[in-house]
Amino acid sequence: xxxxxxxxxxxxxxxxxxxxxxxxxxxxxxxxxxxxxxxxxxxxxxxxxxxxxxxxxxxxxxxxxxxxxxxxxxxxxxxxxxxxxxxxxxxxxxxxxxxxxxxxxxxxxxxxxxxxxxxxxxxxxxxxxxxxxxxxxxxxxxxxxxxxxxxxxxxxxxxxxxxxxxxxxxxxxxxxxxxxxxxxxxxxxxxxxxx
Amino acid sequence: xxxxxxxxxxxxxxxxxxxxxxxxxxxxxxxxxxxxxxxxxxxxxxxxxxxxxxxxxxxxxxxxxxxxxxxxxxxxxxxxxxxxxxxxxxxxxxxxxxxxxxxxxxxxxxxxxxxxxxxxxxxxxxxxxxxxxxxxxxxxxxxxxxxxxxxxxxxxxxxxxxxxxxxxxxxxxxxxxxxxxxxxxxxxxxxxxxx
DNA sequence: CCTTACCTACCTTCCAGTAGGAAGGGCGTC
DNA sequence: GACGCCCTTCCTACTGGAAGGTAGGTAAGG
Lengths: 195, 195
Known about the structure:
The structure is a homodimer of 195-residue chains. By secondary structure, chain A is mostly helical. The first copy, chain A, has helices at 6-22, 29-36, 40-46, 50-75, 79-95, 103-109, 116-143, 152-173, 177-190. Chain A has one domain: Tetracycline Repressor, domain 2, CATH 1.10.357. The first copy, chain A, is elongated. Chain A binds a DNA duplex (30 and 30 nucleotides) through helix 3.
């Protein structure tokens, strides 16, 4: 059981990397086959269609994020610190090029061209992220750990947009540190001390 | 001369729309041929390769933006108003689905998978936009029309990221008004009166 | 003996791009 | 003003390769 499903995990992992690079239409079963060292047809055994593959990938991506967010809530209490850890997570992912872009941000940009089943999952991810960030903002507002200038829900959406936009700029310039440059003042603004 | 080059303009216009939908790998010469009502091979007469086509498209997109920005500077003096007009422009484009996404934001997300010639043009667009926004921020800071909490350059990058992130969210949710929801407080924060 | 995992071989469709020709307009020359 | 010439535009017909997906078989393990 432990590494019986390794192949399908490898397929998902390589698909994730490929999507981060070029989006839904930017990779093929042949690309995955090259990486995983398996025949193209064998991928169809694990995921009958490309839609199945990406739907599963995004769905699991959200589940993983949900787990990570729950764990983060256990280890870090302060809402401001939580936002900082979240931003730092992406900063280092982009910096060391391990996960230079969020899969769902990537797919969201292609939304109108996505198979409906995949689009639904992407939407679900955005909703999950917004809901979580909203709860963090709400708690930070109550506890005085965050200084909000709008409703928590709006602040959450604005923060999420900043993160995604910063990713995009870092990629456009080919300068990973741009992400940090953009997010530092964004976090600063939310800090109760103003620094 | 006036409408001699109409066909090549139509090709560029339809390519722009198609890229906004699905990105670089999300459209083909056949798709353009359907829209422009021309044979696939005829497109190659105007743009020998797909790379040529998109490079030209992005380059002209930047030129148009430069002209629009210059015109905006003539008609509107107040830096805060300029940012508002810029945001409103995109809000209405997204709202009426006429140009529901920025071509360069779309292509930037696919950066690593783009032909180098195209990637260069996309980078140039981002640099132009950042430079312009920085100059607006600088003037607004000097004149007191904008309240900045960081250096003009950083504020400009953050503002640009918010715009792009807001576009992404609007698309992900399938709710055009999300763009406005995110940008309203972003502008508010920059307003000298705080409202 | 059945299921799982993987294979070879193949299909259809689509892709970017090429070859080569037809139609027509502009233009200089006789 | 008619002829020949060329350039632009668009066409039909095609190529080689890559796309997603299928058919059917083999080997291993419970």
